[in-house]
Amino acid sequence: MAQLQLRSVEKTYGNGFKAVHGINLDVKEGEFMVLVGPSGCAKSTTLRMIAGLETITGGEIRIGDQVVNDLVPGKRGIAMVFQNYALYPHMKVRRNLSFGLKLKRIPKDKIEEATQEVSSILEIEQLLERLPKQLSGGQAQRVALGRALIKHPEVFLFDEPLSNLDAKLRASMRVRITDLHKRLRNEGRPATVVYVTHDQVEAMTMGDRICVMKDGHIMQVDDPATLYERPANDFVAGFIGMPEMNLVPCALSRNGGLPVLSAGSQQITVGDGLADRLKAEDGKVTLGIRPQHLSVVPAGTDGAFNGTITNLEFMGHEVNLHADVDGAAFVAVVPSEDFDNNLKRGDKVGLRPDGRRIHIFDAASGANISLS
């Protein structure tokens, strides 16, 4: 396996549209890196440039010690798993797995050994004599994964491989793929993976690190916990986490050195170390607070915004409480056992943020100015 490096990589199409804006990314040997972002953020374009399926118009892509800008896909030492599986429909599973090795003129006994090993790892031994049309979605995806695994590539590339599966099967395949990655690492065969998805649950549960993209730019690259706890900007803050972070325009001032946040006509003074973390001058900012870090308290409670309940979503183990605070929409997550079942739409409530978990973003740049 090898490390992967992108240096100032750009992609501009013939019509002048610039899809990728000079991105830099380092994927360590044996790392599971996830590219995540909304549709149109260029994550799949980036993956296809790594694979050699899209030409780059600037910068450098390096796999191991080799610059691969001008190499065709077959010479880059990569294996790719696609969203639509891309199995050969006229070939049985056994031949689908082994076909790439046959093209490389690997001896038959070695091919058979590799086929048996991969089919055992992925638990598809009983499928070897079936055609792709006889497979379920999950089985076909395992075969596609096996076809990549059998090549022992330098880098594995996954392009939204689970998006065609139902929710239960997606969850099962997430575990299977991450378990396979850990198994190879423990066996001394670390697999370097770049995995593209728009699903933040996949990103947070699968990635060693996550690269969050927007409009062809990299917003932040970090491990899942850091992305959640210390988002670099308001885009990452709003994209990572379910329900998404509350992002509310506010005015920031100070009272005796403590930050005062004003949302509409309401003000709260916040302590708990925020003053020490804050790098901003007074002025327009965006308050960021996750729904899980808002307490629902009686209206008029000190340190709370007063709002009106607009909706209640009962999720079983928790309740999502939606409220309007002077025109700003807030969501609070309350464990079901702590929820006051007498609350209903139209009731007045207080929403008190945990001062230790507040984020303050610059209104103009979106940068998190409350990181210590």
What's this, in brief?
This is Trehalose import ATP-binding protein SugC. With 372 residues, this protein is an alpha+beta fold.
Helix content: 10-25%
Structural class computed from helices and strand pairing:
alpha+beta
Radius of gyration: 25 Å
CATH superfamily of the largest domain, by name, is P-loop containing nucleotide triphosphate hydrolases
The number of distinct helices, counting runs of at least 4 residues, comes to 9
Note the main sheet. Answer: 6 strands, mixed
Mean pLDDT: 92
CATH topology of the largest domain: Rossmann fold
Strand order of the largest sheet: 6-7-8-3-9-10
Strand content: 25-35%
- Note the overall shape: elongated
Please indicate the count of domains.
2
Q: How far apart lie the N and C ends?
A: 37 Å
Commentary on this structure:
The protein is built from nine helices and 20 strands. The protein is α+β, with helices and mostly antiparallel strands and 372 residues long. The protein folds into two domains: 234 residues, Rossmann fold (3-Layer(aba) Sandwich), CATH 3.40.50; 119 residues, Nucleic acid-binding proteins (OB fold (Dihydrolipoamide Acetyltransferase, E2P)). Strands 6-7-8-3-9-10 form a six-stranded mixed β-sheet, sandwiched between helices. Strands 13-12-11-14-20 form a five-stranded antiparallel β-sheet. Helix 5 links the parallel strand 7 and strand 8. Helix 2 packs across helix 3 and helix 2 runs parallel beside helix 4. The longest helix has 20 residues.
Topology:
Layout: E1 4-12, E2 18-27, E3 32-36, H1 43-51, E4 58-63, E5 66-67, E6 78-81, H2 93-103, H3 108-121, H4 137-149, E7 155-159, H5 167-186, E8 192-197, H6 200-206, E9 209-214, E10 217-222, H7 224-229, H8 234-239, E11 246-255, E12 258-263, E13 266-269, H9 274-277, E14 283-289, E15 294-297, E16 305-314, E17 318-325, E18 328-335, E19 348-353, E20 359-362
Parallel strand pairs: 3-8, 3-9, 6-7, 7-8
Antiparallel strand pairs: 1-2, 1-4, 4-5, 9-10, 11-12, 11-14, 12-13, 14-20, 15-19, 16-17, 16-19, 17-18
